[in-house]
Amino acid sequence: MRANKRTRKDARLLFRQCLAADGAIEDAKLRLVVQRVAADKPRGYLALLNQLHRLARLTLAERTVHVESAVPLDAAQESAVQAAAKARLGDKIVFQKSLNPALLGGLRVSIGYSVYDGSVRGRLDQLQESFRF
Q1: Which of 54, 103, 121, 130 has the smallest count of CB within 10 Å of its CB?
Q2: SS3 helix, strand, coil % of the chain, rounded to 5?
Q3: Beta-carbon contacts of residue 33 (< 8 Å; ≥ 6 apart)
Q4: CB count in 10 Å sphere of residue 92
């Protein structure tokens, strides 16, 4: 279901009311907005709720940090990565970590839809690609 321009604008205005000063979603405000829209049922309210859901999902993805490493991170390394992510994104982040032995060494950090690859596997792939004609 494609939302029209007015619905997208209304969803953005409502969604901005649900954000804290640092850009994080305030759950209680978002719940209240969704409940009010669902209770009042204005024209096109389903499209409006879909747009609110889309905006919330995108905002949450921007604050999700996924760290892949070849070996388990020790406490100091993990806290350093978390501190760097908090400095960039603010305090309200979702931090996920996983092991990926295929990386061989280093880290691959995904923040939202951006990937920062500092792994040995990534560098080997870049080197291999540079030798192709």
Answers
A1: 130
A2: 55, 15, 25
A3: 14, 15, 17, 18, 52
A4: 14
The CA distances from residue 80 to 12, 75, 83, 102, 119, in Å, are 34, 9, 5, 23, 17
The DSSP symbol for 45 reads H
Average predicted confidence (pLDDT) for the chain: 89
Q: Where are the domains of the chain?
A: 5-60, 63-130
Say how far residue 13 (Cα) sits from the centre of its chain: 20
Give which of 57, 116, 54, 119 is closest to 85, Cα–Cα: 116
With H, G, I as helix, E, B as strand and everything else as coil, classify residue 92: coil
